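The methods section describes the discrete structure representation at length, but only in general terms. Each protein is reduced to its one-letter sequence and a matching series of backbone shape codes. I believe one specimen quoted in the main text would settle the matter. An entry of this sort, consisting of the sequence and the corresponding backbone structure tokens, reads as follows.
***
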Amino acid sequence: MAPENDSNDITRSHVQLVHGNIIGHYRIIEKIGAGGMGEVYLAQDTKLDRKVALKFLPLHMCQDAECRARFTREAQAAAKLNHPSIVTIHEVSEFSGRPFFAMENVEGQTLRDFGKGKELPFSRIIELAIQVCEGLAKAHTAGIVHRDIKPSNILIDQDGRAKIVDFGLASVHGSEHLTKTGSTLGTIGYMSPELARGEEADARSDLFSFGVVLYELIAGRSPFKAESEVATIKNIVESVPEPLARYKNDVPDELQHIVSKALAKDKNLRYQHADDLRTDLKRIVGAPKTDLAKRPPSIAVLPFINLSTDKEQEYFCDGMAEEIINALTQVKGLHVVARTSSFAFKDKHDDVREIGRKLNVETLLEGSVRQSGKRLRITAQLVNVSDGFHLWSETYDRTIEDIFFIQDDISLSIAGQLKITLLGKERVAMAGRHSRDVDAYSSYLQGRYFWNKRTEVGFQKGLDHFQRAVERDPTYALAHAGIADCFNLLGFYGVISSMEAFPKAKSAAERALAIDDSLSEALSSLAFATMYHDWRWEEAETEFKRAITLSPGYATCHHWYSEFLLCMGRMDEAMTEANRALEFDPLSLIIRALRALALYFALQYDEAEKQCKNILDLDENFVPAHLFLGMIYTAKSMFDEAIMEFRCAISLFGRSSLMLGALGHAYAISGKQEEANRLFNELVHISEPVCVPSCYIAAMHADLGENDKAFEWLTRAFEEHDAWLVFLRVDPMWQTLRSDPRFIDLLRKMKLE
């Protein structure tokens, strides 16, 4: 009988909500809204003499005690949000067993009414969108997902500012959701594909919903709405919206890209954070008007298919595509997607239009290679992404000695088809990167093939092949740059000592630049070594900036420059540079991992953890994601999870000093002193053939409260120029030592203070 009585009480309270009713210190004025998620009343706050809005939980939810408790818990969490773009929740309470919350009353109109019957200029749409993104970023950082973003839940106040409403019914990280997996929450037409399938929502679901709102503001119509709800849901899950240009003239290409990315079906390819969406919107605002009208021509070069009977020729096919990529990056005015992203489609059969959408390019180059002895048959075709039509195609029947002429021909033909004017200097840059010794070139291609695997074995094999290339042709600048890249990362990951690795990297990079002083790859490698070993910060930054000027589309340089900015504590600039790297390499896992590292240094551990998990959803064997996730878990005192991640990284990469040192740090800080000591002894004993991670051994001593020993090892790390010492200023691993004068002195000696 009790549940029945509760239901009757709730029903009676529902009837009594009329003008003049007193609910606590609120007096009802009038009903101002109703929907599936509750009823809203305008009320007078008699204590503070102000108007507020009261929202009551729907009756059918109130009959469930557990649901009422969850509502209260989650609304209380949402009430902690304080941001100009979020309607403030003042209080959470109950009236006759019916939960409600009091919130700021915004005098204005909903975004739906605000935009009805008028065409908003792009500048106003972007301004409002940035404000909404700022509010979503605040909520998502607090672990709150809205799950019902739509125009009627965005209010425009009398000052013209956008404010998000109805966070009281959102989901909160760490609590049970108001609805469970298998049910849906939200408004059909605005819900994300995952919500439409009855799956659980996260922050990226809000960004999809906001992408729908943004599309509507621009096009004046819904991207998915159909004749029935079932058909609408089917469109959300399966259909790609019509281009905005079909409904509105002069839509900036960059704005189309932003909306398309927000509406990606796969949430891993969508914007991962509201801040990223906001940054891209701000970039449009700051761009010259001519940039808004037309993006530069863009292309992705897909890996060439190996049609040879010898499957060992795979490296040759990969190298063919990679070198065309490198040649095209020399052309001003052409946006070229980096190798990592275009090669993500290797051995797949995705539709060219879908690939183009994922990589945000207008054209694709695809091809094949068949080799028999010294004879080659190479086919290449340039495809227009929008309709799948071939813009240009060619077949080459030549010998392997002609490979360089074929690459030049393909690159110049592409530039011609895309109507890009090639100056004489650029034409020389495209045609003059490689040795004309075919064996040296083959060794170089094999070197890059193995280096790109980003494993200890891959670096060692890559180094062997690059060294063979320069033995065949000592003037081969790119091969010298390859040697520098191998030594740089062997030193960074602690496979060999910094004192051995980075001087060799610098020597190889300088040799490459002596041959070709405009080689961006070599200048980037030199900057990397200058940063991680010499600690000559101004010099390193100058080298990075010159490399970017020489080759603006070289994603690796943007990536490494972002790491430099992290060392300097310039977090906003570092994230901006990482985003630029992603523009050229949108599917790169290592650049996504860099963003996770930046969030870790910014002490945003939950967001950093999400980023790493998203990466591992794409590739569960990606070593840096396991390494950084272990560091994040260590900082969050989730030591068992941290130890598991470090062990996983070691099993995939090898027992480098960096990996072992990170594991030892986790052992020490978690109180596993026996395991820490055992690993410490192992690290000390392997110091001769490999290298000791002095930074991490210092951290192990600090974790055990042995500060004097910690500084002994930090002094040794300083003397050895330990690569990871560059993060001394920002790494939370050193939190317990920061107030010690010896730590401050070390920062000054490194010119990091």
In short: Residues 298-433 form a domain with the Rossmann fold fold (CATH 3.40.50.10610).
